[in-house]
């Protein structure tokens, strides 16, 4: 029995069919769009053990410490998380964590989720080691983030027909709130025309015929001016940035869906599957099928 079942107090779930519906009981497969809860670990209590999933999970897990301290281990590296610390475990990342032995408790809110496709940029967090993301809000914002996660949990406990959408949208609000906080701290801020160009490109990744002039026209700039601003503020060319977004989106689709590889390629603008596979392998070191196999459990 996966210890996760025991470590899922106040858990709620949405999404696809399960072998049974209670995440506290054996047989729960996490084949769901979203599961959220609060885990209250006390020294010597029934939840006082380490979660150990060396292959991680198929979705993301966001974790916010609200009381006490936890310890996160990853290949002989260790991180101690304290109240206000937020961690993001992407698909396939090692899960090895529990209460810090020098602390009497570790309470943490968590959300397991399969992301919407356009969340990719918002899930690119700075890492503490390997691929484990880390973010600590400013002190005045910590309570707001905790409140949003609690609203995700509460939404799932309601019985309304829109509970699932409400919980997912609240999680999206949390991710956007983090992006907004980061944006506010940037100096200088990103030019609105560059940001709008990035959004436009992201919204049109499936277009096989890409034209910088079309993007420039959309943001009311000349192609040369747009190219200059891109290099100045993002450090890369427009084409390089788009290529990175296409591959990143393909990686997300390969790791979180069962979409055929040819369809994944078309989704990010590659009409030729062989060409898509060649470009993908050049950028990642693995073919699309090899990359997907690495996430399957």
Textual characterization of the structure:
With 297 residues, this protein is of the alpha+beta class. It has two domains: 12-185, Jelly Rolls (Sandwich), CATH 2.60.120.280; 192-293, Homeodomain-like (Arc Repressor Mutant, subunit A, Orthogonal Bundle), CATH 1.10.10. It has helices spanning 139-157, 163-185, 192-203, 212-218, 223-234, 238-256, 261-267, 273-284, 288-293; strands at 12-14, 34-42, 51-53, 60-68, 70-74, 77-81, 86-89, 95-99, 105-113, 127-129, 132-135. The protein has a seven-stranded antiparallel sheet with strand order 1-2-9-4-7-11-10, covered by helices on one side. Strands 3-8-5-6 form a four-stranded antiparallel sheet, with no helix packed on it. A hairpin with a 2-residue loop joins strand 10 (127-129) and strand 11. The longest helix is centred in the middle third of the chain and has 23 residues, at 163-185. The two termini are 16 Å apart.
